Amino acid sequence: MYNTHLLYFNKRERSMAGVERLERIVAELRNEAKVQRINVSVACQDLVKYCQDHELKDVLVSGFEHRANEFESKRKLCIMI
Fold first, then answer.
1. In this structure, are residues 17 and 9 in contact, taking their beta carbons and an 8 Å threshold?
2. Where in this chain does the record put each G protein gamma domain (predicted)?
3. Count of the separate structural domains present in the chain
4. By residue range, what is the domain housing residue 34?
């Protein structure tokens, strides 16, 4: 059960490729272990505070001013049935 790109290598080369893959995995796990963790409750409080601080700038919360709505259709639509 080898990867297709490893089929044509000899046993030693396959072994070295496996070792390199495992070394990359270990390096990634070490990097992830260094990440500073915070409690979910603290992260939620920060997110709520950010949303409240930027509430007035968010057009999805405060809405568009009628004259400033750049997404409004410029022409009238006429449908005949």
1. yes
2. 15-81
3. 1
4. 4-68
The 8-class DSSP code of residue 78 comes to -
Maximum alpha-carbon separation in the chain: 75
DSSP result, 2-26: --GGGTTS-HHHHHHHHHHHHHHHH
Share in percent of the chain as helix, strand, coil (round to 5): 65, 0, 35
Give this prediction's pTM.
0.43
Q: Is residue 74 part of a domain?
A: no
Q: How far apart are CA 49 and CA 44, in angstroms?
A: 9
Task: Flag whether pLDDT at 40 surpasses 70.
Answer: yes
What does the pLDDT look like over 53-69, one tens digit per residue? Answer: 988 888 787 776 666 66
80 within some domain: no
**Residue 12 resides in a domain:** yes
Residue 2 in tokens: 């080898």
